[in-house]
Design brief:
Blueprint lengths: L1 E8 L2 E8 L4 H8 L18 E4 L2 E4 L12 E3 L1 H4 L7 H8 L9 H16 L19 H7 L10 H14 L5
Helix pairs in contact: 3-6
Length: about 170
């Protein structure tokens, strides 16, 4: 049974009819031809499909499109403003934080999400003082927070400094 929905993706509204079992990832890729989020494992374990849903990172392969409602979906492409790459895009290039690039859009969206989480003071499993008002975004914090995004090429050694540089530039506590 199809449902009429409107997906707001990267600032544009997209009305479409979808089967109620359609994932957000499949709606983005197959119906809207937005190919930034990738289908990796299709089980929420690799992070290649990571997008931001109202600023919070989600695995789009685990979200049903009909549940998105009025939320804003932001893909890695949508982080750019007027075709100017986001600071994370530039930092990933400067730090050579990708190899084949398949996981990179998900990595970039996840990195944008962790910067927002740190600014909001959300602790992670490695935060020493979970009651603190601020989070120090150390390399260990970045590694822990990015652990849901896998890279088969093993560019991890360059991803952490790429995220750290943007965190520093944006004034996220380091």
């Amino acid at each position: 049974m199809d449902s009429q929905i409107t997906l707001r993706v990267d600032g544009a509204a997209h009305p479409l009819a979808v089967d109620t079992r359609t994932t957000l990832l499949d709606a983005l890729r197959e119906r809207l031809r937005i190919t930034s989020p990738k289908k990796g494992c299709d089980h929420g374990q690799c992070g290649a499909c990571t997008v931001l849903l109202d600023g919070r990172r989600v695995n789009s392969c685990l979200v049903l499109a009909v549940t998105v409602g009025d939320a804003e979906v932001t893909t890695s492409d949508g982080l750019a403003v007027d075709d100017v790459p986001h600071a994370l895009h530039r930092s990933f290039v400067e730090h050579d934080a990708f190899q084949c690039g398949y996981c990179t859009p998900g990595q970039v969206c996840s990195a944008a999400g962790i910067l927002a989480e740190a600014r909001a003071g959300w602790p992670s499993a490695v935060t020493p003082d979970v009651a603190a008002d601020t989070v120090e975004l150390t390399d260990d914090e970045i590694r822990e927070r990015m652990s849901g995004n896998l890279c088969r090429c093993a560019a991890y050694a360059n991803i952490v400094p790429a995220v750290a540089d943007v965190a520093r530039a944006e004034g996220v506590r380091r």
